[in-house]
Structures are given as C-alpha cells and as structure tokens.
Amino acid sequence: MKAMVIRRYGSPEVLQYEEVEQPKIKPDQLLVKVHASSVNPIDWKTRKGMLSILTGNKFPLILGFDVAGEVVAVGSQVTRFKGGDAIYGSTSFPGGAYAEFAAIPENLAVAKPTNMSYEQAATVPLAALTALQSLRDLGNIKSAQKVLINGASGGVGVFAVQIAKALGAEVTGVCSAKNLDLVKSLNADLVIDYTQQDFTKGNVQYDIIFDAVAKSSFSNCRKVLTPNGVYVSTLPIPEVILQSVLTAFLPGQKAKIVLEKPNSQDLGYLKELIEAGKLRTVIDRTYPLQELTEAHRYSEGERTVGKIAIVITH
Length: 314
Fold this sequence. Notes:
Blueprint: E1 2-5, E2 16-19, E3 29-39, H1 41-48, H2 52-55, E4 66-74, E5 86-90, E6 101-105, E7 109-111, H3 118-122, H4 125-138, E8 146-150, H5 157-166, E9 170-175, H6 180-185, E10 190-193, E11 206-211, H7 218-221, E12 225-233, H8 238-248, E13 254-257, H9 264-275, E14 283-288, H10 292-300, E15 307-311
Parallel strand pairs: 8-9, 8-11, 9-10, 11-12, 12-13, 14-15
Antiparallel strand pairs: 1-2, 3-4, 3-6, 3-15, 4-5, 5-7
Helix pairs in contact: 4-5
C-alpha cells in the first residue's frame, strides 16, 4: 500500500510518500480502506519530535489519527462490523491513518454518520472528542451555564461551540474579526473579536472557560470565572499541570487539562448529534495524501479555520 511515512523527526519535508506493507490486524481490530483522514496539531508535533518521550525512535512511522473508510477485513473477536461497512474513528497511538489501509481497534470505531461524506467524517474524531470530553467530563457542563470558547474558529473550537449549545449552554466564542460570522453561524450566543476586546478584562463571569487554542492561562482567567468555575486547557505545560494538581484538592475554581481518550461510545454520541443536524464540520482546505507536506505546513501556521481534510482513496 501507499503511505506517508517519516524515518526521522523534523520539518514537513521528512514526510515521504512510499510503498509499505499493509498492517496486520489483531483479533480485536478492523482492516480499513482509508478514504480520508485529517490533520491535527498532534500529528505535526509528533513529526517534529515533540512527543518523542512517548513515540521513541521506532521508524518508519505512519502518523495520523482520524480515519473514515470502509471495512475490508475483521479480526476473530470483532462482533460489530463486517466487510463493506462504512466507519469513522481513530487509530491507536501513535497513528497510522496517513495510508491506504489502517488497523483500527473495534472499540475506536462506529458507523459513519449517514449525512457526511468520508472527507467530512474524517475531520470529526480527535477534535470533536477533545471538545466533548473537555466540556462534559472536565467542565461538567450544565444547561443554562455560561461557557466561553477561546479559539472558537479553530479545529477543536468549531466543535466546542456546537457541542456546548447542544448541551444547553449559553456560549460566547472568541476568535479574530474575519471569523466572527462563521462562529455566529455555529449558533454562538455572543462572539468576541480578540483583536478588539480582551475577554479576561470583561465583567462577565463564566462557569467554564475552554481554552481550545491554549493562548490564555488559568491565572489570567480567574477574574472572569465564577467562584466554582472551571478552566480547561488543551496544552499540558508544567504551569497548567501544577495548577490542575493544586486546584484539584482545594474548593473553588479548578484548572484542568484535556487528554482526549477515543472510544466508540463518545463517537456514537457525536454521530447522533451530526445526524440530528446539531453538529457539522468546517473544512478549511482539502489535500490529497501526496500533498500532506503542504497540509502540515499550513496547519503549523495556526491560522486554520476548522479542519484540514486529507483525501486518500476514492
């Protein structure tokens, strides 16, 4: 099969389009013909070697977590899928999606939403699961709460705005001027242009601040959090880790870090929201697998609106 592989850590140029062996599936896995994937910041952070403490130096490495495609074979323990099923889901760490075929654990896959193309479905898993688990599991979101999404037009942010609305919250989105209309179209109740207004200096207090782009901090947000408010960040830097440990044992405001955990139950819930018309994806650009180098370069510029889709096989 054809795949994009890396044989060392480095710039986007280390991604090479090569012929490699198809993955061998384990008893609990599906062999999936990958129609589409997407780019998430974790992909290029892994490529740069920023996660080498976890990924080690085992090369060649195929990156990519998000998968939408067709089941071609199933392991002996698989009960929910058969050949020909259209699925979307996630590979296990450290990836494997940037290839014509991928091995997907059964518990990380569900049927593809019927009202999405493969390209659209492939942009959902990692980003939307991050948003869902941040708001529901860490923020303990309740109906009618005030929720602020910092980075509301980014890959995770566009899903976070919609999921918070679906869960009954009053949502404020923070983004740049050019994306105000987009975030309003996701049903945000209020949109703040961060170039004109610093939300941390306002007089509104929020029950949850989800910093989907990790551009603010718990310290800066404390003034605009309610007394028992929760700040959730996507970036596990030492400062936030320390604050999350300290606030865990004290009453009052909490700092938390999201580490997305893929699972079929949450993917199924997202599928329900998508099919009910409550969750849609926003695709900024689409690239063929052979142009993944360019896609990574664009993603690293951190100006992506929504997601970047990667088309692999038709």
